[in-house]
Amino acid sequence: MHDGYLNPKFVDGVHVFVQFAISQPEWTDGPRIRCPCSMCKNRKFLETENVKLHLVQKGFVPDYYEWRFHGETTTRTNYEQGAGHTSAYATESPGPYRTMVMDAGGPDLDFDTMEESPNPIAKKLYEMLQAADQALWPGCEKHSQLSAVARLLNIKSEYHLPERCYDSLLEFMKEALPQRNTLPENFYDTKKMVEGLGLPVEKIDCCESGCMIYWGVDIALKCCKLCGHPRYKSRRRESTKHKGDVPYKRMYYFPLIPRLQRLYASKATAKDMRWHDDHDKEDGVMHHPSDSKAWFHFDQMHPSFSAESRNVRLGLCTDGFQPFGQSGKQYSCWPIIVTPYNLQPGMCMKEPYMFLSVIVPRPNRTTQSYPMYCVNGYKFHTTGHGTGRATMNSGVCIKGTNYSENASDYYGQLIEILELEYPGYPFKRTVLFKCDWFDPSRHGTRRHPNYSLVEVNQSRRFNRYEPFILAMQACQVYYVPYPSLRRAQTDWIAVCKIKARAVVEMPELSKKTSLMPELAFQDNEMNLHQIEVVEDNDLGLLNDPNGGDIGSNVGDDEFESEDEIEHVLESESEDEDDDEDFADL
């Protein structure tokens, strides 16, 4: 300040500082830089205009002559005196390993302006920062302690090195390297060094039958509350050395929240986490799931969640696989992978942003095979069971899954019928059909749209996808060969669909119930119904089959006079009176 006004040289210096900080992208968070004012103390990233305002109002942090938080060359020292030597390349740029540690700690991680001892979690990060700056041995300019350890862990993971092999390799390297090298002694020390990166794993016990997990309110249970199977394995003999209980099965959970927090802590991905809301949208074109109707419907159903663009939306996928398939070991597991859809399309489906959250061990199951099975009104036979029979019950058809008007069906032959039973309560069973599918392309299947006829080439198979389907999805067909000796028609067979037959379940008859009654049925009372007679003097004409009218000459033939007709009517009335008297009796 000069006479109550800002010194123009100080204002010019602030502009020079901001321009220099912007020119160092390795030390910025997009358009933001660290604010070196006396209040922020290089702990916050702010916009350049806000940084200028803070510096004008509060001034620089004391003794900040070397802009070491903004890319100016400096020499890093340890936060504890005498902890080790520094690396020559640590004075140039932060480097990938130091940047990795800084991203793990977030923008609030401050190495040089600590006023008190860090907490245990932060202390691990500072130790890794020291390892990132510490040379592997005095005078080494290519590797630091952290970079060497990271490379060794990558080699161990990629080539599946056992722990004993890793320890032997470290022992040999320490003997070959110059003295005073900082390489860890064994695998345990290596894990302790990188523990601060914050990729924890939680081991959760689960039932051997896959009924439940021992978590939350069930964490203290000793047996499954559904099937009663014990949680821990029984010990054959008591050991003098105390060991914890060994569960029958265990799943691994990798907490997801710390990973999502690092996406916002890292300056490389913080801005991209808001891409789904900031990008330009084009009507009628879906570049990203955020352009879909389902996304828009979710925003309408949850307006408070969608109002904040930094809220994370996740996609989940899972599938079973055998990690030891090449070694022949029969073991499978189900990894559950989560990916954040906040990121742009070029990032959200890439491997670094597909987070493995849970590894579920395979469920125990029993498999039983059947030669025949009845479902959906059809009776299926496997091809082996139907060999030599006059009927064909092994033809299978399933509807295509492209959900379009021109959806094509898939045709094949039933090879095996499998029933999978998963233990637990209640018992879970499912039936699968293993089929040999014909080629559904135009080279293997011909369709006649005018006649709805389908033909398949029995010499072409479809081996691209899995052969299993659920039994409830199957329809039955049979195949008829062409009565032709032409070479072009010998491999083609016609498809005939079969209508499902209804199955009527009859109730079981008890032993006391018989088909024929023991006594004949007899009604003791008899109801007589009165016959109503309608008098109609108008006699209509009858139609002659030859086209003419038949006259009403009945009266001329049977009654010669009107008196005789009246006598007949009176006699009929007397008969009716007699019937009424009989009914009264």
Characterization of the model:
The structure is a single chain. This protein has 585 residues and is of the alpha+beta class. The chain has helices spanning 8-22, 48-58, 95-105, 120-133, 145-158, 163-176, 187-194, 257-265, 275-278, 293-301, 303-306, 345-348, 554-558, 562-584; strands at residues 32-34, 45-47, 202-206, 249-253, 314-318, 333-340, 355-361, 366-370, 372-375, 378-381, 395-398, 410-422, 428-437, 445-448, 453-457, 468-470, 475-481, 492-497, 542-543, 549-550.
What tags apply to this protein structure?
single chain, 25% helix, alpha+beta, disordered C terminus, 5-stranded antiparallel sheet, 9-stranded antiparallel sheet, 585 residues
Question: Could you give the topology of this structure?
Answer:
Blueprint: H1 8-22, E1 32-34, E2 45-47, H2 48-58, H3 95-105, H4 120-133, H5 145-158, H6 163-176, H7 187-194, E3 202-206, E4 249-253, H8 257-265, H9 275-278, H10 293-301, H11 303-306, E5 314-318, E6 333-340, H12 345-348, E7 355-361, E8 366-370, E9 372-375, E10 378-381, E11 395-398, E12 410-422, E13 428-437, E14 445-448, E15 453-457, E16 468-470, E17 475-481, E18 492-497, E19 542-543, E20 549-550, H13 554-558, H14 562-584
Antiparallel strand pairs: 1-2, 3-4, 4-7, 5-6, 6-7, 8-12, 9-10, 11-12, 11-17, 12-13, 13-16, 14-15, 15-18, 17-18, 19-20
Helix pairs in contact: 1-2, 3-4
